[in-house]
Design brief:
Layout: H1 15-22, H2 30-43, E1 63-65, H3 67-83, H4 87-95, E2 112-119, E3 122-129, H5 135-142, H6 156-163, H7 165-178, E4 188-192, H8 202-214, E5 218-222, E6 227-230, E7 233-236, E8 239-240, E9 243-246, H9 259-266, E10 271-273, H10 276-283, H11 287-291, H12 294-300, H13 304-313, E11 317-319, H14 325-330, E12 335-339, E13 349-350, H15 356-362, E14 367-371, E15 376-382, E16 385-398, E17 401-410, E18 423-429
Parallel strand pairs: 1-18, 4-5, 4-9, 9-10
Antiparallel strand pairs: 2-3, 2-16, 6-7, 7-8, 11-14, 12-13, 12-14, 15-16, 16-17, 17-18
């Protein structure tokens, strides 16, 4: 059978590239994974009848990534976070942020997510997320791997990250709490999302709940409508809520059902992480236009080394304006269009697949145009047939330090969990 054609043919010959093309090992012990997840979810209070189908969440195969690429991604993350500390950067991004972002209670954001494509010129940043999902699920996945034909599966660094994940997560939430309060830890934390039991990531909420409760923090999973705010106290069903792990995609807490949380947050009555200010400074997609402008960052005080990292890593990004309609339409085949307030790949368009009607809609405002960066690729076997899938790499971080590295295998315009053979995948460093 002929080998599938790879779109990104310029990737230089490397060990990782060859393994991603020719290693078809099924490394996932799916039985062990399912048993582990089911045991964890039972401990978290789920009934067996409530277990979701985990098959669509996880790929059977790993993604091989050079250690040098992971080190480069970590340097890029640190450069980004240095840039976002610059007073002029903050002044600019807060000028277009919602009013609530002016309030700074202290926390810097739990579970940042930095998404990359790997190509011939190294890692390229695609997106920054403040409420990046999947970390808890990816840890369970990484612990359920067989060895494959490549001898360097889980490196010592990866194993240390897995072994230390629970402690690192607890420390992260403890530090977020302490950035707003002097005493040690919150008594009660709520994981908050709209209709959480219907969310795709609900099993992850349960894993997070179990981890935090094992560390001594009572943890609830709540819809924001269950929250009440009165007399300076945020409560749910009569219980005081000290801290919120925020999984809402209403980044400014503007929606009416989020009023109680918004008021408590602005009064400093609850610690919220990630919060509206963190999203405005780090994850508003308009900020990519600044991060892709190294000269402006240099003028604002970023050092040359970090500006050079960002110049090579952040695709050129511009705010969509009707004034640039002719130039944008002409260049559309090399562009990717994203809504500035979007999430979960909703409302995004590849320019080469975009109709004139959609383009006219985009020109109304609220979009960025980003230079198109092809995804990395992974060849795998599905029912003994070879197939090529796209790959994103995500770094889960806190305070610029990596908590976990994971991959997503998918097919189509953007990441999804509907692709045969796709889903979350472990990263094997080579």
């Amino acid at each position: 059978m002929p080998e599938p054609t790879h779109e990104n043919q310029r990737i230089p010959d490397s060990r990782a590239y060859e393994l991603n093309r020719h290693c078809y090992c099924i490394t996932l012990d799916r039985k062990a994974l399912n048993e582990s997840l089911q045991r964890l979810l039972v401990d978290a209070g789920s009934e067996p009848s409530e277990f979701p189908d985990f098959g669509h969440l996880f790929s059977n195969t790993p993604v091989f990534v050079p250690s040098s690429n992971i080190a480069a991604m970590e340097r890029i993350v640190q450069a980004i976070e240095s840039a976002t500390e610059l007073p002029s950067f903050r002044e600019r991004v807060l000028s277009w942020a919602p009013e609530i972002a002016q309030f700074n209670p202290g926390p810097i954001g739990a579970f940042m997510g930095y998404d990359f494509h790997l190509g011939p010129d190294g890692p390229r940043l695609i997106e920054i997320n403040t409420n990046a999902g999947g970390a808890f699920l990816n840890v369970v996945l990484a612990r359920a791997q067989h060895r494959c034909c490549n001898p360097s599966q889980q490196t010592a660094a990866t194993q240390r990250a897995l072994d230390g994940f629970e402690d690192a997560v607890f420390t992260m939430f403890k530090r977020e709490w302490q950035k707003q309060h002097a005493h040690s830890v919150p008594s009660r934390l709520a994981i908050v999302d709209d209709s959480p039991r219907t969310q795709f990531m609900f099993p992850e909420f349960q894993l997070a709940q179990q981890l935090l409760q094992a560390k001594g923090i009572e943890t609830l999973i709540l819809d924001p409508s269950e929250l009440e705010y009165a007399d300076g106290r945020l409560t749910a069903h009569g219980k005081l809520i000290d801290m919120v792990y925020n999984r809402l995609v209403d980044f400014a807490l503007d929606a009416p059902p989020h009023t109680a949380l918004r008021r408590a947050y602005l009064d400093g009555a609850v610690v919220v992480t990630p919060n509206p200010r963190v999203h405005a400074i780090l994850a508003d997609k308009r900020n990519m236009a600044l991060l892709s402008d190294p000269q402006t960052l240099l003028d604002w005080g970023l050092n040359e080394t970090e500006a050079r990292y960002l110049e090579g890593a952040v695709p050129k990004t511009r705010l969509v304006s009707n004034n640039d309609a002719t130039a944008l339409w002409s260049a559309r085949r090399q562009l990717f269009f994203k809504p500035v307030a979007g999430h979960g790949s909703k409302g995004v368009y590849r320019g080469d697949k975009m109709t004139r009607r959609v383009f006219e809609h985009i020109l109304n405002g609220g979009y960025i145009a980003q230079d198109l960066v092809p995804a990395g690729e992974r060849t795998l076997k599905i029912d003994d047939e070879l197939a090529t899938r796209k790959v994103d790499i995500r770094l889960y971080t806190y305070a610029g330090r990596t908590l976990l590295v994971a991959a997503r295998i998918y097919q189509g315009q953007t990441t999804n969990f509907r692709t045969p053979g796709g889903g979350f995948a472990p990263v094997f460093r080579v």
